[in-house]
Design goal:
Blueprint: E1 2-6, H1 10-21, E2 25-29, H2 33-40, H3 51-60, E3 64-67, H4 70-75, E4 79-82, H5 97-109, E5 114-118, H6 126-137, E6 144-148, H7 158-163, E7 168-172, H8 176-185, E8 192-195, H9 197-228, H10 232-240, H11 261-274, H12 280-304, E9 311-315, H13 330-340, E10 344-348, H14 353-357, E11 364-365, E12 378-381, H15 393-399, E13 404-407, H16 414-419, E14 423-425
Parallel strand pairs: 1-2, 1-4, 2-3, 4-5, 5-6, 7-8, 9-10, 9-12, 10-11, 12-13, 13-14
Antiparallel strand pairs: 6-7
Helix pairs in contact: 1-3, 5-6, 9-11, 9-12, 11-12
The structure holds uridine-5'-diphosphate-glucuronic acid (UGA).
Length: 432
């Protein structure tokens, strides 16, 4: 099929490349001229495992194209996907101006029947507004259908998630666009859930909020573990074997961050409020998440006492493993809080250092993770990068002024760390 993807961010670019990979002809459109020029030259603006190869392969096969022209994209496609940012506003609601802007531009250039698909994460009832907008601004009164098709990919695993989705959700008012949408997704072999537009939009917010709730739940349990001497990893493993609970998203840590969960929680709370429901359960999820970071900073203070003029080494800046994304990263938040207290920082991230430099200055960026500990009063692990497990612990112990490690992501085994001579403090796991 001929598909147009408007927006070449994490969702648009990866989804476009995966659509091309299964044989569709895809044109990815973005209004950022410099970005499109880079993509046309084969440069990928984000780090996402497997994406670069995928883009190069499909560009060579002439199934994937890049353009700055919405008209070119819409003219040559049966289905037009909107995958533009929906950033948060200060009051927690979502800024839908990019979605509205693109809907107007599509309306302007539409010359025949199109299926317009909203892939951006939006509050329930946005589909109605997109339809209204296109109808209002259409230059030529041609037929069109609006569909909601939320995305569930995780950054760092986006290609795998897209190629093997758990489910595909298609929300539509009428049956007409559903056959075409099924054709798009058939090659992926996943269950396809057909709903009305409002339900599809809600599936996205309800899913992300539920996953955030699961993380806050285990983080709250980690507090009880610390108070009682139980081990949160063992509790999570025991809970997770119950098929009704499942073992994923039960890793206690510094809390969730990134460009999705915090924003989607606020947006879901806001839209619920507008619809007359005070979603206090989700407000608690937010509170637990904030407190988890407060508690970690307190743990550092309790051990090191006065933080002013201490030096800490921080491993991890990305909001999670396998990505260079630092948007609302708990690791960056932690660094900024420590800096405010006068702590000097030596930091390292396998992929996110360049992006971190835009938001975190006045720190020493260290290229090799094994050099971070040099002259530090303690080491902090802030992101769950798997390579941190390969840290040269002997060297770290020698380089540190004191052999103290604060592990905010439970990367190491407490018993082993103690054996290695470290004062080791992690999340919800007792000292031996
Ligand atoms: C999340 C969802 O998982 C995706 O399904 C969704 O498509 C995406 O948001 C989106 O709305 O676009 P993402 O934000 O990329 O994906 O990353 P996650 O893997 O969900 O991690 C989010 C945060 O939760 C990270 O800070 C991570 O460290 C934290 N987390 C995750 C935990 O603290 N514990 C866990 O057990 C799992």
């Amino acid at each position: 099929m001929n598909l147009c993807m408007i927006g070449t961010g994490y969702v648009g670019l990866t989804t476009g490349a995966c659509f091309a990979e299964v044989g569709h002809n895809v044109i990815c459109v973005d209004n950022n001229t410099a970005k499109v020029a880079k993509l046309q030259a084969g440069e990928i603006p984000i780090y996402e495992p497997g994406l670069e190869e995928l883009v190069h392969r499909n560009v060579s096969a002439k199934r994937l194209h890049f353009s700055t022209s919405i008209e070119e994209g819409v003219d040559g496609s049966d289905i037009v996907f909107i995958a533009v940012p929906t950033p948060p506003q200060p009051d927690g609601s979502v800024d839908l101006s990019f979605v509205e802007g693109v809907a107007r531009e599509i309306a302007d250039v539409m010359k025949g029947y199109k299926v317009v698909v909203d892939k951006s994460t939006v509050p329930v009832k946005t589909g109605d507004k997109v339809e209204e907008t296109i109808r209002r601004y259409q230059k030529r009164k041609v037929d069109f259908d609006v569909v909601s098709n939320p995305e569930f990919l995780r950054e760092g695993f986006a290609v795998a998630d897209l190629m093997h989705p758990d489910r595909v959700v298609i929300g539509s008012k009428s049956t007409r666009p559903v056959a075409a949408m099924k054709q798009v997704y058939e090659p992926f072999g996943a269950p396809i859930v057909i709903t009305d537009i409002n339900s599809a939009e809600l599936i996205k917010h309800a899913s992300n909020s539920f996953l955030a709730l699961k993380i806050s739940y285990i983080n709250a349990v980690s507090v009880i573990c610390e108070a009682s001497g139980a081990n949160v990893s063992e509790v999570a493993a025991g809970m997770g074997l119950d098929a009704r609970i499942g073992k994923r998203f039960l890793d206690a840590g510094l809390g969730f961050g990134g460009s999705c969960f915090p924003k989607d929680l606020s947006a879901f709370i806001k839209i619920s409020q507008q619809l007359g429901y005070d979603f206090r359960l989700l407000k608690e999820v937010q509170r637990v998440n904030t407190e988890q970071m407060d508690r970690f900073v307190t743990k550092i203070e309790e051990t090191l006492w006065v933080l002013k003029d201490k030096t800490l080494g921080v491993l991890g800046l990305a909001f999670k493993q396998n990505t260079d994304d630092v948007r609302l990263s708990p690791a960056i938040d932690l660094c900024l809080r420590l800096q405010k207290q006068g702590v000097k920082l030596r930091v390292h991230d396998p992929k996110a250092a360049e992006k971190a430099k835009e938001v975190l200055s006045g720190v020493v960026y260290v290229d090799d993770m094994n050099d971070v500990a040099e002259g530090c009063d303690a080491l902090v692990i802030a992101t769950e990068w798997p390579e941190f497990r390969q840290l040269d612990l002997n060297r770290a112990r020698q380089l540190l002024t004191h052999p103290i490690i604060f592990d905010g992501r439970n990367v190491f085994d407490p018993a082993e760390m103690e054996q290695q001579g470290f004062i080791y403090k992690s999340i919800g796991r007792p000292l031996h």
